TrEMBL record:
Keywords: Amino-acid transport, ATP-binding, Nucleotide-binding, Transport. PROSITE patterns: ABC_TRANSPORTER_1, ABC_TRANSPORTER_2. This is Amino acid/amide ABC transporter ATP-binding protein 2, HAAT family. Belongs to the ABC transporter superfamily. Residues 5-230 form the ABC transporter domain. It comes from the Bacteria. Pfam families: ABC_tran. One of its GO terms (molecular function) is ATP binding. GO terms for biological process: L-amino acid transport. The keyword Ribonucleoprotein does not apply. CDD domains: ABC_TM1139_LivF_branched (cd03224).
Amino acid sequence: MNTLLSFDKVNAYYGNAHILHDFSIDVKEGESLALIGRNGVGKTTFVNALLGQAKVRSGSIRLGRKESARWHPYMPAKEGVMVVPQGRCIIANLSVEENLLLGAATGRKGYWTVPKIYGLFPILRERAHTPGTALSGGQQQMLAIGRALMGNPTLMILDEPTEGLAPVIVDQLGDIIRQVNEQGTTILLIEQNLHLVARVSRRYLAVEKGSVIAEGIVDPEQIEQLQQFVVV
């Protein structure tokens, strides 16, 4: 199984604040991996290091066959890695469809097109010409996922996608994420909601104080054993 994304002993900083400590992770083609941990342990910094928004002072990041200590924000998308960011980052003055089309700016061709996104999220078709920020929180999350899929990623990273959402919406998103994974897109889910982790992920890595401290197979029947990594 090919490795799509690898961090090898990455040390990342914001200014002089050392956040990631020898952080290592391998994401394999086709898998659905969960990165779990409490707030403030470095999960989002992992994404920011990938996007060049946190300074990597040592270690290396590899995307496919390309390796670097620092990536510019546009480079992961060009290599087939799309991020659904924490907070969704919907562009306020653009319509739903215009927000979706932003995801296609990478020029990558593949399965996902606007009609395919509308098939996955019918509510987005109904509100195609509505300002993206006029949607509900759950609908905005669907839009953020749809926008990422428009880049036809080999790997999609979702950073805390359930934040602020009702349980019924979380269940809907879980079904969609599984469907996307089964369609062929590798998933890296950064999440504290273990219900969603059990629903969509096969493997987990637990983060504490900027390092990976545990990993294993996700067993939905024993998911409560992972509470130690997410409960303060």
